[in-house]
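Per reviewer request, we include the raw input and output of the structure prediction for the construct analysed in the revised manuscript.
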Amino acid sequence: MTAPIANTPDLWRSVLPFPSVDSHKYNRGTALIRGGAVMTGATRLAARATQRMGAGLVTLAAPSTVLSVYAAALESVITQPCDDPRDWQKLINAAHHPALLIGPGLGQGAAQKEEILAALAAKRPTVLDADALTNFSDQPALLFQNLHENCVLTPHEGEYVRLFGAAKGDKTARALAAAQRAGCVVLLKGRETVIAAPDGKIIVNRNAPPWLATAGSGDVLAGMILGLIAQKMPVFQAAAAAAWLHGRIAEIHWAGLIAEDIVTGIPVVLREILS
């Protein structure tokens, strides 16, 4: 294990995506998100965050019964009906979906588990959050054997315990153990967020104020990571950058923050960093 490094923009600013003068929506990065039938707000927050981070084209796949909910709220997101794992597989197979997010608002069950495994089988940069982790609480080994190096897992402490067992050691040690067990980047959320890679690299993010303890903030973070990896930013640096930017937005906004404010704050901090 290398010594943990404090998260600062100097660690990832040089690889933060920035469009060229001849950019268009396809070469700016495209992403596919799986939406669920009940907690539609979680997926909508993630989709907006993905867009705000710079992805040029975002597609959201959702059950036909609630597709209008997504379409009405996300005018510039492509919405596609997706009622079963076969529909999901067809969308994954489309060449213009190089980065994936599954988990926020997904729900739990055998079909959802099948869809998570289908996403992983595509071997594309993939963020797994929320229900994508909880669905494997009873079969963590099945999840681990299907993960790959371009995945990012974003557990909070409860999800960590359900996947990796009772917490042992300090947070950096636990995050690293999880990354090495999973074979991919693990972002362990909390007051201090730890980003760990299987090769031993660890970044600790310490700029998260208490205002981030609000419903939906984790969904926004997952979308922010997706927006960066869709633009081909390396997954470890993308996770670290998203965590720092997430905290910086909350620092600027201060009291009264809700998840939607994090999304609208993304352009403010990107301008601060990139200029």
